[in-house]
Amino acid sequence: MDMNAGRDSQAVVETRLTHETHRLATGLLVDAAGRPSVPRQALAQLRDFLVVNLRHHHEIEDEWLWPLILTAAPDAKRALDDLSEEHERLDTALDRLADIGLTGARDHDGEDLNEDDRHALREAAVAVRDSVRDHLAHEEPVLFPALRAHITPAQWAEFAQRVIATTPPVAGHLMIGLLDEVGAPAEVESIFVNMPPPVKSLLPALRDQAAADLRVLRGIGS
């Protein structure tokens, strides 16, 4: 079935790439939290990006996408309810991650982030990463076939526009950079093609900003 991924529905392509960015970004935060060279503000930016985007992603699934699927496939209710319960458990892990103090000036010892805070951040990030990966392993075998069978291109286009309109504007350039890493150029372009013209005109600058920030998080050069 995956042999035809290049001809897959836009719904599956966009969902698959979004999930891959979540896998990549959660793993990146775990690695960056354990890297002393990564400054507090870079960690805070990635953490805040993850918290708001993961919450937004599962909220729009629960509130908008699941009802759309259930209209066409009522027998999917049990499976979708189980996925929503996993969303609630992920919220608990996100709450813990969001509560780690990463804002403000350098501490009194001159350290950008002390060892205890960095350890607490990494532990919370590991919990989110593992929760996301386990959840996606359960969700994708249910969701991808449902998107293929029950969501029309017009329904997905409307849903995707609602997603764009309601996505919190927190470090959005990171999503652009991460999509470029996980998707083929044609797949990424198929997502960006419907962006408002003012945003599309900023794509080169946003890509440059994302590349620079991701290098910092990975401890690559200056």
UniProtKB/TrEMBL annotation:
Family matches, as InterPro entries: Hemerythrin-like (IPR012312)
Coiled coil: 73-100
Keywords: Coiled coil
Family annotation (Pfam families): Hemerythrin (PF01814)
Positions of the Hemerythrin-like domain: 19-147
Protein name (record): Hemerythrin-like domain-containing protein
Species the sequence originates in: Streptomyces prasinosporus
